[in-house]
Amino acid sequence: ESILYVSDTAAVVNEQQPHHILKYQMIDNKTPVNGTVFAVVSPGEPDGFCLAQQGNIFTSSKDSVQIYSPDGKRLGKIKIPELCANLTFGGRDNNQLFITAGKSLYTIEVKSKGARPA
To answer: Which of 2, 80, 81, 109 is the most buried (most CB within 10 A)?
Structure first.
């Protein structure tokens, strides 16, 4: 738990405002430093996200779940027919992605497994 990710969804109010995920290094597990933009999420905002064991970030967006590598490069999208709001890993093997959207709950099995706290 040496990295803190923070979603900035100010673009919900004003499209000219940020719509990205910030990344901070943690000192002694309590002090965030060296904040940088990890990824700009478009279209939409990163309202909810979760971390996979290998360090990839799965985040909500307007048209999909977007997947980013640990260095912030977008690896791909999982299209969702509604506005994606939040998501989490779960299931028996922790490799099911549960996705909340406008009026629905979706689940998809993925090759990644959700990160577990140390």
So the answer is: 80
